[in-house]
Amino acid sequence: MLDVIIAGAGPAGSVAATLLARAGARVLIVDRETFPRDKLCGDTLNPGVVKLLQSIDLWGGPLASAPPLAGMVLSGPTERVEGRYGDGLAGRAITRRALDAWLLDQAIAAGARFEAGEIVRGPLVDSSHGVTVVRGLVLARRGQHSQTTRVPAAMTLAADGRRSVLARALGLSRHPKRPRRRRNAHPAGRLSGYCASRRGTRERVRGDRTRAGGPQAGGRRASGDRARSGDRREVCARDVRQPRERPRPPRG
Ligand SMILES: Cc1cc2nc3c(=O)[nH]c(=O)nc-3n(C[C@H](O)[C@H](O)[C@H](O)COP(=O)(O)OP(=O)(O)OC[C@H]3O[C@@H](n4cnc5c(N)ncnc54)[C@H](O)[C@@H]3O)c2cc1C
Predict the structure, then answer these.
(1) Does 81 have pLDDT greater than 50?
(2) Which CATH number fits domain 2-43+95-169: 3.40.50.10860, 3.50.50.60, 3.10.450.10, 1.10.340.30?
(3) Could you tell me if residue 218 is left (phi over 0), alpha (psi between -120 and 50 degrees) or otherwise beta?
(4) Which of 20, 58, 68, 105 has CB 3.0 to 4.6 Å from 53, enough for a Cys bridge?
(5) Do residues 205 and 76 touch, judged by C-beta distance below 8 A?
(6) Is 194 in the pocket of ligand 1 (CB under 6 A)?
(7) What is the rounded average pLDDT of the residues 17-23?
(8) Does residue 191's CB lie within 6 angstroms of at least one atom of ligand 1?
(9) What's the pLDDT score for residue 247?
């Protein structure tokens, strides 16, 4: 039997798999996607993440050559907030496509097994002694949704992201009632939602043509507006527009 089965091969799953495999555990990591794959993200790592990855010997490959970042800028029509890491600290700009694939490779190199195209349908639950215990995963192959496989393991890790099937099935998380998202939102509207969740920035990022800040000082964001400010190059992410109100149909 497996020691550990991990749902999701994002950074959380792959880093956990690497550490566990290095410690000698038999690890299977599954993901519905094949890698490399794209992931919606600002593609930036803060200095804390950089330090953490280095401290567990997960540094090299595309990370080592990723452009350094001195801080971040959040700007709107009337306000602009600049945050510099300072003290010689630097973040990194790297696409999730490159980062996640490299982290997964490190897990595999450490001895973890990876299965792509496996959809986690739910936890394998044992309630026989009056206590709910997770004993593994119920999986379905992509494209064969009706057939499921039960994969037992001594330990199960839910690293399946913010919409975790496992967390919801076990009542550990649920969909928030607010803020509600519009089904027809412009793709950039999702970035608006992300920024708006940060304390204190809600007003700044919700106005029309508000911009979410991108990396500075060597940042590598390609799309969007560019401006020069002092000795620093400021690259802004694409405009974040509120989706237009749809006219309501007349009553009656
Ligand atoms: C718009 C946006 C911008 C962001 N920008 C940044 C940023 O610049 N810097 C930063 O540090 N963080 C950023 N984040 C946050 C960052 O994306 C997350 O913190 C990070 O991805 C969490 O990693 P994770 O491994 O927990 O989950 P994920 O990266 O979401 O990985 C989860 C994995 O599980 C898999 N999975 C999910 N469900 C299933 C299932 N049912 N079956 C099988 N596999 C499944 C997915 O395919 C995925 O590979 C941003 C987030 C958003 C939404």
Answers:
(1) yes
(2) 3.50.50.60
(3) left
(4) 58
(5) yes
(6) yes
(7) 98
(8) yes
(9) 52
